[in-house]
């Protein structure tokens, strides 16, 4: 038996490094930037007004008060987007809107609320404006390069491209980014007992569920997914079905057919073809395999649905995230107080489905199991929000003790 960490490392090694591609910004959401990105322009690109109001020379309004306003002729009008701004002459004001370029000569902006609005502020009719407050140099002025300086690194390699990062890339004038692309995954469910709904079930058959779970879990990471939903337990059928779909696939994930029984189709088909089958010291999810088949990485999961999803969480999710350039590949972990006694097999790490109630104030969070340890108990998983991780040496874990919880 190998440890959870050993198998996790083997799977992670199989998948790195990821592919990169240069994509339009709209296709980059959630992906990781592969290279540093430098700003082509400064942000803001020019000194501009932070307010609707009047661009002035600060010295011209240095005496302005509510009681003794300073009156200035309004000699210009600068809406946002104006590119031919005239200089501001001493003793005058230009009406200016938020985001409009400051006229040469002006060093501050008086917001409209500190003026009598000037005749026809909304209508745009230049006239005179009475200013009720001083505007020291720089007031309501957004300086060139205050946010980003042209030529500097705006987004470092490794940035996860969420809304603000993509907004910044667009703001500095980029339309494409080079990102790590998510793997294209082929999910293969094996088992001669598997039926795809809505076909009717005969006694001895079950509805196939692993492929949809894996599809959902993989899609949540951004992967492209194709599924083969019920490949019979026959080596020839398995090889043929999978090879027919291998083109353009970065990773094959199978479920079923890897335990110690007879008719272990995945093991029988791949054991001599580059995939190593092992037992990992964990429950559920002991029987695992991983390697390359025809050059394509293959991870073989056991068949029981709970084992599949736990294996995905423990091995595949971190490996895929790493291959996609993420450095934060683990789920959030917390310690919580157990609400019930649990038993765990000595020598194996146990992952139990649980419900975690977060800490309130100084009281530690609590966690209780959902369902038993059985790896077929999918309904219990559907009611869980976490995995309770009990270490290899644990045997009896009593209510009230603190345990590790992986938040899903
Ligand atoms: P195996 O590892 O192939 O022996 O499968 C272990 C258990 O998981 C058996 O009870 C299978 O019927 C069940 N199983 C395997 N694959 C699937 C699947 N895709 N959907 C639902 N149950 C499955
Ligand atoms: Mg099977």
UniProtKB/TrEMBL annotation:
SUPFAM superfamilies linked to this entry: MoeA C-terminal domain-like, MoeA N-terminal region -like, Molybdenum cofactor biosynthesis proteins
Keywords: Magnesium, Metal-binding, Molybdenum, Molybdenum cofactor biosynthesis, Transferase
Cofactor: Mg(2+)
TM region positions: none
InterPro entries: MoaB/Mog-like_dom_sf (IPR036425), MoaB/Mog_dom (IPR001453), MoeA-like (IPR038987), MoeA_C_domain_IV (IPR005111), MoeA_C_domain_IV_sf (IPR036688), MoeA_linker/N (IPR005110), MoeA_linker/N_sf (IPR036135)
MoaB/Mog domain sequence ranges: 186-322
Superkingdom per UniProt: Bacteria
GO biological process, one term: Mo-molybdopterin cofactor biosynthetic process
Catalytic activity annotation: adenylyl-molybdopterin + molybdate = Mo-molybdopterin + AMP + H(+)
The enzyme's E.C. designation: 2.10.1.1
Gene3D superfamilies in the record: MoaB/Mog-like domain, MoeA, C-terminal, domain IV, Molybdopterin biosynthesis moea protein, domain 2, Molybdopterin biosynthesis moea protein, domain 3
Pathway where it operates: Cofactor biosynthesis; molybdopterin biosynthesis
UniProt GO MF annotations: metal ion binding; molybdopterin molybdotransferase activity
GO cellular component: cytosol
Family membership noted in the UniProt record: Belongs to the MoeA family.
Function as written in the Swiss-Prot or TrEMBL entry: Catalyzes the insertion of molybdate into adenylated molybdopterin with the concomitant release of AMP.
Name of this protein: Molybdopterin molybdenumtransferase
């Amino acid at each position: 038996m190998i440890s959870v960490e050993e198998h996790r490392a083997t799977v992670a090694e199989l998948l790195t490094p990821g592919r990169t591609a240069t994509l339009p910004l709209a296709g980059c959401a959630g992906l990781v930037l592969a290279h540093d990105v430098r700003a082509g322009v400064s942000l803001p690109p020019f000194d501009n007004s932070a307010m609707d109001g009047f661009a002035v020379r600060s010295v011209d309004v240095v005496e302005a008060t509510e009681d003794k306003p300073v009156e200035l002729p309004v000699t210009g009008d600068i809406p946002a987007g104006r590119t031919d701004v005239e200089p501001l002459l001493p003793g005058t004001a230009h009406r200016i809107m938020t985001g409009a370029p400051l006229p040469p000569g002006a060093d501050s902006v008086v917001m409209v609320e500190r003026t009598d609005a000037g005749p026809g502020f909304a209508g745009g009719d230049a006239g005179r404006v009475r200013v009720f407050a001083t505007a020291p140099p720089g007031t309501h002025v957004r300086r060139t390069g205050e946010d980003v300086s042209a030529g500097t690194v705006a987004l470092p390699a490794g940035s996860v491209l969420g809304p603000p990062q993509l907004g910044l890339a667009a703001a500095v004038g980029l339309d494409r980014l080079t990102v790590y692309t998510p793997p294209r995954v082929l999910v293969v469910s094996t088992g001669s007992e598997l039926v795809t709904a809505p076909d009717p079930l005969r006694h001895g058959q079950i509805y196939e569920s692993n492929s949809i779970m894996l599809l959902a879990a993989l899609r949540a990471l951004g992967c492209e997914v194709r599924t083969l939903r019920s490949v019979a337990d026959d080596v020839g059928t398995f090889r043929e079905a999978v090879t027919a779909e291998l083109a353009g696939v970065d990773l094959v994930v199978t479920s079923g057919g890897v335990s110690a029984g007879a008719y272990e189709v995945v093991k029988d088909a791949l054991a001599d073809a580059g995939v190593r089958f092992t037992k990992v010291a964990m429950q559920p999810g002991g029987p695992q395999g991983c390697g390359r088949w025809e050059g394509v990485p293959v991870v073989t999961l056991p068949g029981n649905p709970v084992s599949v999803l736990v294996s995905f969480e423990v091995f595949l999710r971190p490996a895929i995230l790493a291959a996609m350039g993420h450095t934060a590949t683990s789920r959030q972990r917390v310690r919580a107080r157990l609400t019930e006694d649990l038993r765990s097999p000595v020598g194996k790490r146990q992952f139990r489905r649980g419900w975690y109630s977060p800490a309130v104030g100084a009281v530690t969070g609590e966690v209780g199991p959902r369902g038993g340890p059985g790896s077929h108990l999918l309904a219990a998983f559907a009611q869980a929000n976490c995995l309770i991780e009990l270490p290899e040496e644990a045997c009896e874990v009593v209510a009230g003790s603190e345990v590790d919880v992986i938040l899903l």
